[in-house]
Design a protein that fits this description.
- The complex is a heterodimer of chains A (116) and B (110).
- Chain A has 116 residues and is mostly beta strands.
- In chain A, 0% of the residues lie in helices and 55% in strands.
- Chain A is built from no helices and eleven strands.
- In chain A, strands 2, 4, 5, 6, 9, 10 and 11 form a seven-stranded mixed sheet that branches.
- In chain A, a hairpin with a 2-residue loop joins strand 7 and strand 8.
- Chain B has no helices and eleven strands.
- In chain B, strands 2, 4, 5, 9, 10 and 11 form a six-stranded mixed sheet that branches. In chain B, strands 1-3-8-7-6 form a five-stranded antiparallel sheet, with no helix packed on it.
- In chain B, strand 6 and strand 7 form a beta hairpin.
- Chain B is globular.
- In chain B, 35% of the residues are buried.
- Classes of the chains: A mainly beta (116), B mainly beta (110).
- Chains A and B meet through strand 5, strand 9 and strand 10 of A and strand 4 and strand 5 of B.
């Protein structure tokens, strides 16, 4: 149980284009999902917390107009990187927390984004 | 601000050589401490949640323990397939955010 999927697993795009990443909880409902970014050999940096049916809460320094988050259902959250630039190239990972639980997060497999 | 420090940064063990990974933390009102395993190019895989000092949890060759200031992940008779980066994270009571350490990269040599 507690399986989280992400799509796509990797994407290559041209500078200036937008990229959408999907995060789905497959066998549970998730009222809260999280989006992280991870640079090589570094730990996970929380970008935003996404609550179903409400606006995401962004961490300090994360541009909400550049990283659009939508959590439209209890099993799906999306992250859109708008007007992507090479510096946005990174490993993006989502996680989900089981509805009614306040603790353990289950992570997706990650999405590798490369902006040329 | 919550802080998590993991040591060592990297650890190389012979197969069967038991050892421990350390996670020191500072948090006001711990709600939970988490251990994850992360393989290269993949998302973290959940291992354990610990809630209070004195608590211990085991899974196969792994055992996690918790005190008021640190947590240990003990690896008994490791195998090459245990090679991965092990992440520790803490959550403060009343908050949704989890703070991660930078991890310990474990390599187990046959």
């Amino acid at each position: 149980g507690a399986v989280v999927s992400q799509h796509p697993s990797r994407v290559i795009c041209k500078s200036g284009t937008s990229v959408k990443i999907e995060c789905r909880s497959l066998d549970f409902q998730a009222t809260t999902m999280f989006w992280y970014r991870q640079f090589p050999k570094q730990s996970l940096m929380l970008m935003a917390t996404s609550n179903e049916g409400s606006k995401a809460t962004y961490e300090q320094g994360v541009e909400k107009d550049k990283f659009l988050i939508n959590h439209a259902s209890l099993t799906l959250s999306t992250l859109t990187v708008t007007s992507a630039h090479p510096e946005d190239s990174s490993f993006y990972i989502c996680s989900a927390r089981v509805a009614g639980s306040q603790e353990t997060q289950y992570f997706g497999p990650g999405t590798r984004l490369l902006v040329l | 601000e919550d802080q998590v420090t993991q040591s060592p940064e990297a650890l190389r063990l012979q197969e069967g050589e038991s050892s421990s990974l350390n996670c020191s933390y500072t948090v006001s009102g711990l709600r939970g401490l988490f251990w994850y395993r992360q393989d290269p190019g993949k998302g973290p895989e959940f291992l354990f949640t610990l809630y209070s000092a004195g608590e211990e949890k085991e899974k196969e060759r792994l055992k996690a323990t918790l005190t008021k200031k640190e947590s240990f992940l003990h690896i008994t008779a490791p195998k090459p397939e245990d090679s991965a980066t092990y992440l520790c994270a803490v959550q403060r009571g009343g908050y949704q955010k989890v703070t991660f350490g930078t991890g310990t990269k474990l390599q187990v040599i046959p």
